[in-house]
Amino acid sequence: MTPDPILDHCSKSYPLEATPCRAADIGGKGWNVLADDLAYPLAVVSRSALAHNIAWMQDFARRKDIALAPHGKTTMSPELFALQLAGGAWGMTFATIFQLAVGVEAGARNAIIANQVLCDADLDGLDMLLAGHSDLRVWFLVDSLAQLALIEDWARRRQSRRRFDVLLEIGIPGQRTGCRTLEEALALAAAISRSPVVRLGGIECYEGGLARCDSVHDAREVTAFVGRVLEVARRCDAEDLFGDASVMLTAGGSAVFDLVVPLLRAQGLSRPVQGVLRSGCYITHDNGNYARFLKQIEQREGLDASLRAALEVWAMVQSVPEPGLALLTCGRRDISYDLEMPIPVRHAPRGARAATEAPAGWKISALNDQHAYLHFDPAGTVPQVGDRVALGISHPCTTFDKWRWLALVEDDLAVTGAISTRF
After folding, report:
1. Does residue 314 sit in the same domain as residue 367?
2. pLDDT (tens digit per residue) in 232-260
3. Which of 59, 243, 293, 316 is deepest in the core (most CB within 10 A)?
């Protein structure tokens, strides 16, 4: 059951003088972003683009005959989790037990923790969630004998009879977690198969660290990595190390998710394969990093168009102190800046009830805690104090975590709903 939080003066950008309301009832206020009904900055999600993206990615998974378990860390929004599940997602992916608990509350009953679980508090929490939900199944990652020893030690000290479902993680040298060699992976898989406290359900990997937004490079490197992972899966299968009737093979960030489909549809194993794609950022997409990667996916897949940018942060021009520079009411507290600066995408002059595309030369050069530096050509369109500017983002994850709620808006920027986040 998804929550229906109360929005009030404690919620950033909610009008101080407005009466509190349930998120589900905010549409009744009759507010519109361009009527300046809410304070700036204001993070908004396009309802139509959101629905399109959920349907598009689900259709992609269906056409490829794979399952979808979107990574919940992107939004940490129970309402969006529920929409993804209702849209056909097989389950959800998370990075922590805390995130998993939010997903379970939103209705997820198949879940992958794409991370190692090893501390007592997390193993206790996972045990509690599994005990409290008989229809819940969770797989987490194991990549070392040392981690396995900690899990077994927990079980001995707790006198637990729990047997956790785990996935063997295959990693990339010099990058994140995961077994580095075939020999290391097979030794760990054998130890897992002998352990009374874990059950080997399949193989996991994350290919995103190989992506360079160069289609030739990305296809070559990811394909080679997929080959390594498949070899581990085949050897584990040949040695009868899997503990399930089917084998889960799972991969997929948001940059080159099409290139891991051959892994997820692997043939030749002695038992059925459950291929699970874990992309997360597709739900709102972006205007920067993933937009560039998506153009290459569209070329490789022969698509004219696919995902749409659904997330914007609206700000107001608060000062134009010198020619070519305007300051906006938006800063590091409000918007992503980890991969690149925000991108001006729309402009609405003061009083206008419609927005147009922002001039191509407008650029955000820097952010302070509460200010964005907008540079423009003084000979072109000059922003005025009181104008509104919509900023697109690069990498949605680090915008969502700056908001406890975001407004759902229609194409005319009428506010018709709200979602909450649980970071």
Report:
1. yes
2. 999 999 999 999 999 999 999 999 999 99
3. 293
Q: What are phi and psi of 83, to 5 degrees?
A: -65, -40
CA dihedral (242, 247, 251, 256) positive or negative: positive
Question: What is the rounded distance in angstroms from the CA atom of residue 277 to the CA atom of residue 264?
Answer: 8
The answer for residues whose C-beta is within 8 angstroms of residue 337's C-beta and 6 or more apart is 367, 398
Q: What is the pTM of this model?
A: 0.97
Burial class (CB in 10 A: 0-12, 13-18, 19+), 358: buried
The domain containing residue 161 runs over which residues? 109-279
How far is the C-alpha of 257 from the C-alpha of 278, rounded, in Å? 9
Contact in structure between 13 and 44 (CB atoms under 8 Å) = no
The CATH number covering residue 20 comes to: 2.40.37.20
CA 117 to CA 123: how far, in whole Å? Answer: 7
The answer to whether residue 77 sits within a structural domain is no
CA distance 108 to 105: 7
CB 283 within 8 A of CB 408: no
Q: Which two tokens stand for residue 126?
A: 């996972």
DSSP 361: T
Summarize pLDDT for 75-115 with one digit per residue, the tens.
999 999 999 999 999 999 999 999 999 999 999 999 999 99
21-22/6-7 β-pairing: antiparallel
Report how far residue 227's alpha carbon sits from residue 223's, in angstroms, rounded to the nearest whole number. Answer: 6
Question: Residue 324 pairs with which residues in a beta bridge?
Answer: none
Residue 240 maps to a domain: yes
Rounded Cα gap, residues 193 and 199, in angstroms: 7
